[in-house]
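Assemble and predict.
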Amino acid sequence: MTGPESRFRRLLALYPKDHREEYGEEMLGVLLADGRTGPGVTADLVRAALGARFRQASASVREELREEGWRHAAFAVQFFGSLLLLAMAVRRFAMVIWTMVRWPGYDISPFYGVDLVRALGWAVAVAGAVLGIRLLGVTGAAAGLAGEIVAPFRFYLDTPAQVLNAYWIITAAAVVLIAAAVSVRRAAPRGWPFVVAAGVVLIAQGLAPFSLRVPMFGVAAMLALIGVVRLDSTIRGRVIVFAVPVLAVFPLVRLGFGGFVEHNMRHPEAIALIGPVQWAVLVVVPAAAFVVAAGIGRRFRGLMPRTSKGA
Amino acid sequence: MREPTFLVLTALAGGPQHGYAVIEDIAGMTGGRVRLRAGTLYAALDRLRAEGLIEVDREEIVQSRLRRYYRLTGAGEQSLTAETARLRTQATIAERRLRARRIQLGGATT
């Protein structure tokens, strides 16, 4: 095997297996006949291989989301997600009002508009889920997501870390919007009273003394978890897969952006903004986490007996 | 339609060709301005096959390597015809405006 051939084979290994089987040998022949071997060829093959992988992954996600089991799970995600995000939005609004009551001179005007939009957005999304009106659910979730994005971006130029801190909630809002778009209406998912209770605790947590905030957040998380555990076993696994992109954000921000946040804290005179590659990582990692979790879930369901395999 | 796609369809409009012949044909058509790389070419061929605009004509083994010939389908011919008409319309408009501009500028300087 010649030097260029082994190099081209290594680069062609980046393509998905199906693509390699279909075009691998043919492409190798073209690459060798063409004779170009520079970095341009390498970059072209890497870009095309990543593009092929992305197309394959997005096609498989689209195919998955068309399955009945996913659409039923999406309804539970829409229902629970909208409720919890509404609770978070109300919590922040309640905190603002509480601040206004306690310190009347404190300027809270920057909070009004956006907080109102996202609270109303999530209220509409909950109404859409409860009434089973897709347009209402999607519109509310879209307004909620817009609010969740705009809220931290108001401070982006001064404190980019605010966007990173809120990124998990932006991801959660995006997941709920996607779920609302693909879900099919069913009866209220089992376990919803626990999620409502979790929402109430979250709102109260925002107004509680500092010493109680962490334990109360733990109680809310536990109640939400019980709500998920009580879901029908046929959709529970898929609901967890929907939550994986949100959970992936925490280690991503902590491990991947710790240095970035620290730099900005130490150098307030030279604030670094989030670069294009960092943005790409913030988008790709949660999406990839979903694809990987969906793949694991598919294998897991394949190993289960047919009676509990689910829709 | 992106330029590489248009050029691949144009190359295959002349008759079935294998991958390397498509690269050479396009380089010849464009006077060497566009010389597609293998990654770009096969991304376009794969997409065009999926869209039904081209199909495999035949396969042969040359020097123990697979060589596959591709040809334009009826849908591909229609798509290329529509794109050609669109480009011609735009080129005609551009040509007309450039001619008018030259006349205006000519009038202003004389």
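The longest helix of chain B spans residues 74-109.
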